[in-house]
């Protein structure tokens, strides 16, 4: 029987030190490994020159340094987005997207394979839920980006899945990614997006987790919202907003309301008025996302004129508003388009 190796990327600093001790390796080996992998971006043991051949052999026998079984990378025509579709050991997929800015890169990471939330405007919802991702599988998405020469400074949990339904693994990964001995990313550069789970926000408050949040609204009108986002049934937006406000009062971190515009569905003056009321109540910025169309999604985007008209209405109400520029639409890497790997 082949020995089950522990993935290097599942281990935080203390866990790695414990494993090194249990393998009767010097404790400083853990620091050397962290330095090679997360600072020098080298995951090949044989290239880690300050680790003896003998210790390399012990490590190779017990720890798995591999990232993914296979990765297909697609680059958008404007070369500002790279979608990595990663095959996992059990045959599932995850997808993550590097969004390139002039001076920095953001990685849109997945927290689950597929998603159980079933938002009607999102392709990942069509795919359905496959399984949770482990903290190591989340960290590996970042390691992979560095390995293809795409250094990451910002992370958004807006890929496949609802992060607050996998909170333990998501926050273990965040703790690892922000650790000074790993990538030392700034917590201010990490955003967790949620479709609105009350228990998820309660978990953040109970565990004193401070993070930038993005809330995917769909519609600020409860009746419309329930049609677009079944999460509304058990997590009414009115109640969710109250819990979210409590969290904001405790932590005063950035909050963005993500609003996917659907032609003739959530784009009336009334829809925008209730959205602005919500943003004012939560002291949040609004980010307008025009729907990224897909043949499996039964909605259309609004026209560009309408998009700008809506932005102007919101601005007039003295509410901060941005439009999310569609990166990677041609490689189905844009918002709400992840999950293609499962549909091929
Ligand atoms: S929008 Fe987010 S929460 Fe909703 S189905 Fe898509 S991935 Fe899941």
Q: In words, what does this structure look like?
A:
With 344 residues, this protein is α/β, with parallel strands linked by helices. It has 2 domains: 6-64, DNA polymerase, domain 1 (Orthogonal Bundle); 70-343, TIM Barrel (Alpha-Beta Barrel). Helix content is 36%, strand content 19%. It has a 10-stranded mixed beta sheet with strand order 3-4-5-6-9-10-11-12-13-14, with helices on one face. A two-stranded parallel ribbon has the order 1-2. A hairpin with a 5-residue loop joins β4 and β5. α5 packs across α6 (167-177).
List keywords for this structure.
two-stranded parallel sheet, DNA polymerase, domain 1, 14 strands, TIM Barrel, binds iron/sulfur cluster, single chain, alpha/beta
């Amino acid at each position: 029987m082949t020995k089950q190796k522990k993935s290097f990327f599942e281990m935080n600093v203390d866990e790695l030190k414990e494993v090194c001790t249990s393998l009767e390796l010097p404790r400083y080996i853990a620091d050397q490994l962290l330095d090679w992998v997360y600072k020098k971006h080298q995951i090949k043991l044989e290239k880690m020159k300050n680790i003896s051949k003998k210790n390399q052999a012990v490590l190779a026998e017990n720890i798995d340094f591999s990232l993914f079984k296979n990765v297909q990378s697609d680059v958008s025509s404007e070369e500002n987005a790279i979608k990595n579709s990663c095959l996992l050991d059990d045959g599932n997929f995850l997808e993550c997207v590097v969004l390139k800015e002039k001076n920095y890169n953001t990685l849109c990471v997945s927290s689950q394979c597929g998603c159980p939330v079933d938002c009607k405007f999102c392709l990942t919802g069509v795919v359905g839920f496959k399984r949770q991702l482990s903290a190591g599988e989340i960290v590996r998405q970042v390691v992979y980006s560095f390995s293809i020469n795409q250094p990451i400074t910002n992370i958004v949990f807006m890929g496949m899945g609802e992060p607050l339904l996998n909170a333990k693994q998501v926050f273990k990964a965040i703790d690892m990614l922000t650790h000074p001995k790993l990538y030392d990313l700034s917590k201010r550069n990490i955003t967790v997006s949620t479709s609105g789970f009350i228990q998820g926000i309660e978990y953040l408050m109970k565990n004193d987790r401070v993070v930038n949040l993005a809330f995917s609204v769909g519609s600020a009108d409860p009746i419309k919202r329930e049609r677009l986002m079944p999460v509304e049934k058990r997590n009414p937006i009115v109640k969710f907003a109250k819990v979210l406000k409590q969290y904001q009062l405790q932590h005063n971190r950035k909050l963005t309301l993500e609003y996917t515009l659907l032609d003739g569905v959530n784009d009336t003056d009334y829809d925008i008025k209730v959205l602005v009321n919500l943003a004012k109540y939560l002291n949040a910025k609004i980010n307008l996302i025009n729907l990224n169309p897909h043949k499996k999604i039964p909605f259309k985007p609004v026209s560009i004129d309408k998009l700008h008209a809506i932005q102007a209405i919101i601005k007039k109400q003295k509410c901060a508003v941005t439009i999310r520029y569609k990166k990677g639409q041609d490689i189905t890497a844009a918002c709400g388009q992840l999950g293609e790997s499962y549909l091929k």
